[in-house]
Amino acid sequence: MYGPHLDGDGLHARRQHESLLHKLARTRSDIVFLSQCKRLNAVPYGLRIRNPFKSENKRLNLIAEKICCKASQQLRNHAIKNAYSKQSALSYKLRTSEEEIHRHVRDTCTRDNALTALDLSYKRELHNSFKRKLRELDKLISKDTLLNELQFSGHPSLTEKFPKNLTRTSQSKRTSNVMNLSDHTLSKHEEDVLQHSLTFCPSRKLDPVGVCHVLPEFIRRVSLKEYFKDEEQQTARTPTYRPPQKSNWTPSGGRNSFIDKFAMTA
Question: Could you tell me which residues belong to the region Disordered (predicted)?
Answer without folding.
Answer: 230-256
